[in-house]
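Researcher: Going back to the complex we discussed earlier. I've cleaned up the inputs and rechecked each line, so this should be the final set. Can you rerun the prediction on the complete assembly and write out the structure?
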Amino acid sequence: MPADFRAQLPALANKTYFNYGGQGPLPTPSLEAITASWRTIQELGPFTGAVWPFLDQISGRLRQRLAHWFGVPPQRLAFTENVTSGCVLPLWGLPWQAGDELLISDCEHPGVVAACRELARREGLTIASLPVADLRGTVAASATTVLERLEQALRPATRLVVLSHLLWNTGQVMPIAAVASRLACHRRHPWLLVDGAQSLGCIPLAEAAAAADIYACTGHKWCCGPEGLGAMALSERLLQEARPTLIGWRSLSQESSGSSGFHPDSRRFEVATSCLPLWAGLEQSLKLLEAQGSAEDRLAVIQQGSHRLWVGLQELGAATCLLEGPPPAGLVSFQLAGDAPGTVVKRLGERGIWIRSLDDPACLRACTHISTTSNEIDALLGALARL
Amino acid sequence: MPADFRAQLPALANKTYFNYGGQGPLPTPSLEAITASWRTIQELGPFTGAVWPFLDQISGRLRQRLAHWFGVPPQRLAFTENVTSGCVLPLWGLPWQAGDELLISDCEHPGVVAACRELARREGLTIASLPVADLRGTVAASATTVLERLEQALRPATRLVVLSHLLWNTGQVMPIAAVASRLACHRRHPWLLVDGAQSLGCIPLAEAAAAADIYACTGHKWCCGPEGLGAMALSERLLQEARPTLIGWRSLSQESSGSSGFHPDSRRFEVATSCLPLWAGLEQSLKLLEAQGSAEDRLAVIQQGSHRLWVGLQELGAATCLLEGPPPAGLVSFQLAGDAPGTVVKRLGERGIWIRSLDDPACLRACTHISTTSNEIDALLGALARL
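Model: Rerun complete. Updated structure for the full complex:
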């Protein structure tokens, strides 16, 4: 299955690449779609009555396609420059009250954590931690523990829960829909913010995205789209309760009037001019992925690779995988006796093999995607054995 | 001078284009710089130790070059996705007090106005208007009136003044440095937000940018850079007084820690992943402009065109220019007896001539840039005469 896809990724031609969770390779057809749309914009526009239908077509098509991936109506999907903006932007407009509590998992990205801390400082909120970093067993066992811990952590003041779908450090999958159901029973029904940075293009996300209040993704990791474009699904109640913060012509229902109201739908969280050619590139990348099978099919291929790597690491005396069983997705995190993670990354890089290190917990992370070959995995395992 | 520059703009090959104030044409070398950097990112990266020096070089070079254009140290320059974000982002982090007043000119862009209205609603601020739309005389006469009106409008509660440098509707230039000097004498020294959407690439802006607290620009209009990239210059006091709102790894001095402090410099207002290839494209566009002469030289060429157009419109019986004298920059706004502005735009578009309409005041706007030829101006005048 992945051979024809892989052939379209020039980044993989001269290296052994395992950093899909950092940034995915850009397929040649996607770069061509980007440059072709720029050429068309020059031919028709760039700011003319002739170009608007073309731009509407690019944006409309991607909104429709991504809404399908997210499993939400297009009216609930907003575009952002990156996943962090998608996580944070809607938060600033929610009706906070001093004393509200933010319950944040201990595996969230530093950018989101720092934004929540600043929000808490300004609005007089408290922050509590939901520990999930230590959940190294099966997805089912982890889910049970997450729900138990959530039960213990929920307080009358809890107003928001922040939890990634696929944890970027341990690679564990979180039970987002079950968490959402539990929150719906809380007297104040806390909002649920899901950082989906590692989800889109890696695991099926429709159930989780439909259950969350904010489900934010980026196109430049597992989707292999261009950097600088992400999207978020917003719940109906969030759209009603949250006000836009960063505001521009794209937020306004009448873009030529400063006293205009905001779009009633998710576009109220979009801002102003962004780079439409990137939208054409992301759409092309999504189409290439779709041609490789359904989200479930693709995850099965991803798991084949991550399981092979996990098993191989088990057999390597010096390595300890963070997860006790084969990973549920494509993130394989492990610790290695001996050199510091940063040193290992550098030495592997010198051999053209690219993985990354993480600080918390201190570990190494290799990602397998549908483009990853058995030979690549074996090359990594061999290089680790010879370090 | 402009012949070689013009030859690099494919958008101008098949149309008569006057919408530089909406979006500039993208030069072929800039598109090539964008695609070349994407190819290099694939070759070296996209997420590898080998690619970081290349990306640092792209971002460092553009920050340095743009800082020179803005006339501020690189530490005072931050990048944003668009000019509206550059205007609005720093505002949300300023230490507002209920009752503070925002003094906003009546020529500001709807996006910025709507953002200020939402800020006022949340923080309990009042909004007052500084009328400048009616200033149709010389720049010097307008400056005198602006300062008189500012004097009348300033109140003890005034905390922010919002004024564009080059008004997007009438095309008048505002005395930013003089306004800044006046505000410095006010007991509370109100912050000065300058929307420079029409400035960068059109008029010299170093004096104004250095005097403002926030001076926000975009690269995709007069600079002929790609859409989706802008920058803002921030004053030292703003950097000390304002807290970031949208926060991501690029805001943090230690990007791997959620309890990190923010960068002490302007990078605290940058967020997370953006599209670095666009940076390479904007740098190429700036270099092409620099090769055409200094900002002053280029403005002189722009004025030759706008003066020719303004004179020609004067001679056209049905047209009334908004400005009473030759425009100080490249924006030429006018009203036409007869058809509604939108109808005129459409009819000209059918002939391959592109200008735009504005709502407030209802008018037509044509822009001349260094790439505009006398033939194009005469073609527009001829077409208007024959409407």
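Model: Worth noting: The mean pLDDT of chain B is 97.
Researcher: Good, that matches what I expected from the previous run.
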